[in-house]
């Protein structure tokens, strides 16, 4: 089901229902770009620590826009022995909802845009009909604005100004405006200019204070964007009715502004297993755009993530882990989906729920987020069921709640780091042995071939560039490390440190490492993330 | 005429022809955003100097993309006594043309995108079919790459490597690759991986050196993006023919990559009058995107601009200048076009050239760049003709080359600066008297009302915020300046300086002002801008 601003409100019930009844959810995002880094090599050092990798992604990827979000819900139907799916393809765009709302800027990367264009992506749908959204802070601010305005209307400001007309009053009118305001009380004032905003506020307050029950005062805007203050005589009951209508209208406006974030809130509150493929960037973008700016420290990010998505599963990581690793040659989503239909795997039995469009995997609508979410779910089901074949007796269907799945929970595939396969969201990360790695600094003229030459006596090496003047060099034989260190002692143009020494001197200058409880984040409180 | 990547090449002749025959050109650009500033007030101090205003626009606006360019050419037909127009609406997008080409990132501003969306702007056409472009540096780099590759092919590298197979050779093969390369000389090597790029280069060089005349060596890519080295036996003549074909193909690739910039080069080389409405940002973006990153200093920008567009005319500035100023109440493009059809003006006589779509001003296709360029041209014609009514005898048609137009040349409307109406591109800027202006610093808690209060004794004031803790305050009466200065002498929370003192202390810390020749830029050499 395709969801834009045009049908969002009427579809929200169906989305909530689908999430509610699901056994698990699959998600996928499409972005306006991937990496805003200065150069690819600086972004992708294969020896990065998880902290460094997170920091780079946070710094260079969060200014892109997540503008399409795919959600596919999977409900297992016992009677038919198959999953019934409902898939949703949301178009998302931060349309400013009023003159004072934030005017979001986002970056587009030509290569990403060009790639999506070549896949037939509909940018007009995003920009003309994308669903707006607010993060939690923006929502809270807007809520406050509404409340403040309501209080003003009710005349509950601090009483401090003595009106020259009536002797006293609750409104604070600066001297230079008093004349104007007092004249206005007996006029119906017309205005259309921004610079009068302060005066307008005074008029409101004064009128409401002078005629607390007999007048209803409101700003109205004509089709030509001319703005009036409309003053009408009302009795007490009518006034209360108008107030209530207005409050309801404001609540609806607020809901409209929060927009797509409500879908993410529903997914979050459901606490259901959320499956994605190579999903680290999807998770980061989703939190960044719909909850809060990403925290600086990796550990804080893990904490927030566990609050928003308490159970995650990454099919790329699953496919790269035993027993799948040896059976699967290519873990890209499209290839994985194909391989998981063939022996020893079985294509999962799925059907689509009534009223929902069925995707045909033969048609390959790749890179439509709803389709990618759908086949990600298929991959998960196929791999989960394969695990069931090891049971005695073997079982053809393994539920999303099975203990067999648990080892794959909350481990997100980590691209480009050579010896750390995943980011562990619910606990400390793996600490790979890097005893055979040297940290080398050298003149900025050096190229990879200079490093090969320098280490030519020590067998095969692997080079991971850090910047113009430094790199990690991995030796293939551990016993060569000391020899390399010794020979470098008198060198002038370059310098060698062991990885351990380098990390120690680096850590001294920066960080305080958080202590993890034995059971990961079990004792974290997430209540502040679910405050609505 | 709508021009995208699909019909660009076949339309280029028509564009060149239209520019060639035109009496003047009108242009307009649409951007992915207007201002990337931290806050509107910081960007729009009404007391900015032209240098400051330019610096702000350069810093906060150049990361947006000019993605639609309108060009409308106007040729006066003596026989019919009317202008014949040809209008072109170009869609522009920096599609990367190869794996190694620059991957441009640009910013989108939600409010601008939303506005264009509401006008029916076709983003799909931009992103799927936009015409690519290169600036001058990128073009030069690409040209060099082609030349370097050609030299490599011809074996004209520095001879320095002694091949173990044959005794000597012109190629530089690092020790660790020698074995591989020597094996490869007798193999047809197949590869598909990036990491082999260096080895591929060596294979090329070695093969070409060993078989300088008998072999043709080339990389070919299959539809599946697998890449081969194709080695074919050829005789001398055939080899030369293949080389020439290849060179032609490369020249065409280069032209395709330069893309839309060729249109701007043609406009520039024509030296014709270029008319725009409120065109400063159009000019800045056009130069930035298709020529070179904008220079830091305003004077250097003026110099570059005069090279690219030797004669500019801004219809918004013209309409804001006498004799038009008193007759025209609203200088926004749409309103101006309407007013210039009514008395005392006359709707200009125009027709559209054969084979070109005619815009109907009644349909108001505003914010399509081609349409905006068209009505900008109409405005210019109408105002120019009005000037003719003052001649004795009055003349109904005033040419774009008339002396009457000259006072409006190269003066670009300057938004938001209260007392400097335009940026003078071909000479020094106006220096407004700011004797009645005070520079005030104060605690960051202060608001506009605090400033009103502070100066309440000095009559009406105008406040131009600089930042949280400073502002310019214009007094209405010059004689109050000294009194205000005196009373501030013992103040602790705020400080007052005259504008002159403030500017002097500021200039001391920064700049060296360029000396202008009496006749502006007349002696500037632009040859480096027209090197193709």
Sheet of most strands of chain A = 7 strands, mixed
Low-confidence stretches of chain A: 156-170, 185-195
Largest interface: A-B, 35 and 35 residues
First-last Cα distance of chain A: 27 Å
Shape of chain A: globular
| Helix fraction bin of chain A | 25-40%
Rg value of chain A: 30 Å
The whole-number mean of residue pLDDT values of chain A reads 83
Task: Label the structural class of chain A.
Answer: alpha/beta
Number of strands of chain A: 17
Put the structure in a nutshell:
Chains A, B: It is found in: Cytoplasm; Nucleus. Chain A is α/β, with parallel strands linked by helices and about 525 residues long. Chain A is about 40% helix and about 15% strand.
What does this structure look like?
- Chains A, B: InterPro entries: CAF1_poly(A)_ribonucleases, Nucleotide-bd_a/b_plait_sf, PARN_R3H, PolyA-riboNase_RNA-binding, R3H_dom_sf, RBD_domain_sf, RNase_CAF1, RNaseH-like_sf.
- Chains A, B: It catalyses: Exonucleolytic cleavage of poly(A) to 5'-AMP.
- 2 copies of one chain form a homodimer.
- Chain A is built from 18 helices and 17 strands.
- With 532 residues, chain A is an alpha/beta fold.
- In chain A, helix 1 (8-21) runs parallel beside helix 10 (261-270), helix 6 (136-153) packs antiparallel against helix 9 (236-258) and helix 14 crosses helix 15.
- In chain A, strands 1, 2, 3, 4, 9, 10 and 11 form a 7-stranded mixed β-sheet that branches.
- In chain A, 38% of the residues lie in helices and 17% in strands.
- The interface between A and B is medium-sized, with 35 and 35 residues.
């Amino acid at each position: 089901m395709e969801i834009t601003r045009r049908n969002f409100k009427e579809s929200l019930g169906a989305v909530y229902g689908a999430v509610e009844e699901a056994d698990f959810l699959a998600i996928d995002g499409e972005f306006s770009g991937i990496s805003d880094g200065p150069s690819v090599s600086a972004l992708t050092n294969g020896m990065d620590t998880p902290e460094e990798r997170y920091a780079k992604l946070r710094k260079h990827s969060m200014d892109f826009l997540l503008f399409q979000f795919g959600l596919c819900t999977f409900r297992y139907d016992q009677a038919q022995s198959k999953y019934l799916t409902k898939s949703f393809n949301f178009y998302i765009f931060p349309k400013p909802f009023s003159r004072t709302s934030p005017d979001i800027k986002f970056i587009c990367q030509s290569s990403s845009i060009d790639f999506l264009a070549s896949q037939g992506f509909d940018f007009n749908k995003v920009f003309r009909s994308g669903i707006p959204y607010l993060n939690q802070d923006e929502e809270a601010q807007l809520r406050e604005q509404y409340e403040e305005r309501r209080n003003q209307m009710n005349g509950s400001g601090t009483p401090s100004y003595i009106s020259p007309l009536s002797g006293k009053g609750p409104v604070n009118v600066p001297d230079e405006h008093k004349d104007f305001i007092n004249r206005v009380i007996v006029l119906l004032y017309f205005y259309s200019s921004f610079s009068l905003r302060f005066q307008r506020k005074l008029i409101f307050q004064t009128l409401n204070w002078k005629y607390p029950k007999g007048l209803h005062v409101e700003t109205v805007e004509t089709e030509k964007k001319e703005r009036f203050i409309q003053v009408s005589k009302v009795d007490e009951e009518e006034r209360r009715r108008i107030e209530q209508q207005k409050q309801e209208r404001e609540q609806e406006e607020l809901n409209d502004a929060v927009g797509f974030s409500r879908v993410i809130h529903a997914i979050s509150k459901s606490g259901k297993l959320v499956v994605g493929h190579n999903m680290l960037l999807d998770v980061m973008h989703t939190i960044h755009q719909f909850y809060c700016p990403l925290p600086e420290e990796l550990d804080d990010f893990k904490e927030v993530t566990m609050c928003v998505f308490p159970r995650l599963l990454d099919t790329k990581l699953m496919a790269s882990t035993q027993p799948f690793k040896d059976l699967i040659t290519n873990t890209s989503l499209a290839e994985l989906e194909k391989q998981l239909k063939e022996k020893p795997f079985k294509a999962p039995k799925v059907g689509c729920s009534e009223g929902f469009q069925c995707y045909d995997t033969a048609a390959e609508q790749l890179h439509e987020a709803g389709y990618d979410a759908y086949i990600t779910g298929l991959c998960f089901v196929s791999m989960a069921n394969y695990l069931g074949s090891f049971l005695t007796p073997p079982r053809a269907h393994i539920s999303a709640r099975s203990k067999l799945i648990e080892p794959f929970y909350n481990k997100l595939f980590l691209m480009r780091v050579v010896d750390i396969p995943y980011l562990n969201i619910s606990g400390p990360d793996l600490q790979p042995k890097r005893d055979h790695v040297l940290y080398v600094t050298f003149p900025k003229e050096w190229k990879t071939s200079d490093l090969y030459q320098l280490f030519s006596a020590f067998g095969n090496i692997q080079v991971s560039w850090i910047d113009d003047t430094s790199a990690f060099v991995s030796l293939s034989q551990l016993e060569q490390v000391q020899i390399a260190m010794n020979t470098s002692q008198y060198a002038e143009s370059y310098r060698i440190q062991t990885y351990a020494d380098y990390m120690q001197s680096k850590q001294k200058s920066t960080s305080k490492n958080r202590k993890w409880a034995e059971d990961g984040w079990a004792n974290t409180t997430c209540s502040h993330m679910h405050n609505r």
